[in-house]
Design brief:
The protein is globular and about 50 Å long. The termini are close together. The longest helix has 17 residues. The protein is of the alpha/beta class. α1 links the parallel β1 and β2. The chain has a 6-stranded parallel sheet with strand order 2-1-3-4-5-6, with helices on both faces.
Length: 238
Amino acid sequence: MRPALILVHGALGSGRQLAPLADALGAELQTSVAIVELPGHGQTRATDDEFRMEAFAASAAAVATAIREPGAPAPVVFGYSMGGYAALVAEANAPGTFSGIVTYGTMFDWTPAVAVAAAARLDPAMMTAKVPAFAEQLRERHAEAGGWEQMLARTASLLRTLGDAPPLTADQLARLACPVQLLVGERDDTVSWEQTARIAGLVPRGTAILVPGAPHPIEKVPVSALSRALTAVQPAAG
């Protein structure tokens, strides 16, 4: 029996954003697919206390428990960008939550300086002036979760917290027992290959994969590259 597949979106994203990918991967892998919408994103409201990495990890773990069928392996999870970080935190907190993890474009090297720089780019007025089309997209995407300005402010706070106290340590990564595939695009301007390969080396069953020609946005990543990685981490049927 194939494990179910869970998809977790990234920062500033939503569950609806991953719907086309869910359809494509479900057809490609011949398995059921569930999308996790993180608290405070898209159509999912959240309190300030729920907009934190531990709560994001708990959301992914809750969906994994809910969709696992009796006798089936634990689900495989795909996490895009921040969603990959949340998936790894969930598995570190509760080993066996997933039977495999695949991430794409996930940032691991959080420091106070990196976090402050990333948070500074999340200013609504600046985004409206410099990238108005993207700002309007965010406005529409998060209207039902309390508004995009609130989401940006909360995300900036979350990033600063990651910089001050990253929840994923080298010791936690070394204790991950399931297969982990860390993907990064060749043209990713957010996450480097060197960072991805170094983190994969800390995970006992970790592998780093460079996706030729791919940028950071998940919509521009070939589905075939993701399906190959997801197939590689799935346990044998039965």
